[in-house]
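Quick one, T. Sequence first:
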Amino acid sequence: MEKIKSTTTTARYLQFSTARIFGLATTILLTLMVTVLCIAILVRYEVDSEVSSIEDIPYWKDKVPAEQQLWFDEAIKELKLALNKNWQKHLARNAIIFVTSGIDTESMAAARALLSNRTKPQTALSWEKFPHLGRLRNSCSNTDLCDQFTVASAIFNGVRTKFRLGGLDARVAFRDCRAATNVSHHIKSIIEQAQEIGLRTGFVTTRRVTGATMAALYAHTPNTAWECDTTLPLPAAAAGCLDTAVQLIKSKTAQNFNVIMGGGRQTLVSHVPNTVWDPVDETVCDSQDNRDIMRDWQTINLKLKREFAVLQNNEELQEFNGTAVDHVMGIFANNYIPLMDNGRAVPKRHRTPKLSHLFEKALDVLKRKDRGYLLIVETGVESTASSDDQTRTLLQLNNVVQQLVEQHSDDESLILALFTNGFYVRDAFDSSSEVDVTANEIEFENENEIVNAKRLLELPTEALVYAKGPRAYLLHGVHEETYMSHVLSYALEMGYFNRRAANKQK
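Structure tokens:
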């Protein structure tokens, strides 16, 4: 009997001990959970409040000498911006891309210095205030040659192709017109993608509207040298190839542009007047086949019963009301639109428009309440331009971008500023349209130091792209040159990222 009682007592004791152990373990577990939760809340609070509390850092207010405080103030300002992680992941409604060629980082530093006081922090150029920066690797090297048209096709259309091809994939051979007319070989540009989802589209350039960079938006050619009739061989024309200028009215994508503004009248209209105020450039394509593509563009728009306008000088641009039309073609120079008058007293009727004015009028045409838009703005200088010309070009661009940021502070627009120096090796190949082009390795070994230095200088730098707005955070670090167009497609949900098209196919 006592044995049974002892056993019962032991069991109760064990049961009580187990309950105590279980209770203690539960208490410890709950304590750990509460502790972890408190730590998480505290960390979250510290992250969220880091921007606001950074002003409360005591040392820079109280202990920094007055001569040094200016720089600490500037650093605190930049720290606050860096800590403000405002990742805009929503869909972009609009996109504006500024493209600048012929400008290097040294010129950018010189332009920045002109805006600054040496005793104060340098004033940042407008695009340097954008929160995101990426670098685009290009395909130009001493073994892989390329030209501006080919590079622009890769950047805007997202597919790298062969040397001297534009808007065509690598299945097409150089000067192969039969393959070039096969639409399955055509690369779809960001402009075509934008038009498919109903965006209004356009471009503004201080260069030729048929020039290499803008032509990549609408043209498909097996030889990027075929800009107008005088460079297109008769056999190529007979085989179905079209020069770039003709494609500005023959291409469906080009026909649907809402804005076409720039220079290049001599490629669009034959036998244009050659004056001291607007000279014909004999080094580039000059049409001779009696064409008038500007007139043909008007005829197309009349047949389509569109509200349109054709502009040919600065006075017409000044009077132009972009809100009243849906399509505009403005051609303001035989070749490039000069950005400055170089001290000459230019008569009023011969003055050319400023980039800022072209941009402002383009936005008037593109902006509508019910639709977004995609606009490309191009400027730049020749590789031989002086540092003064480069600096002036940058300062004009700075004013345009600053105007855009100040007047359009919404978060609906993805804004990109792309800089590439635009230098491409020329003396390594024969650029004649009648000679096959082979990209051979450039020999550096047997040349003197001066020649080597010149060659290295003319190799193109990789592009810098500054980004601001919805999904701009995707441009960071170093990417292929084809990456930028895919970011645009993703940000605007077009092309292969068009959900509406994908749903229709299901």
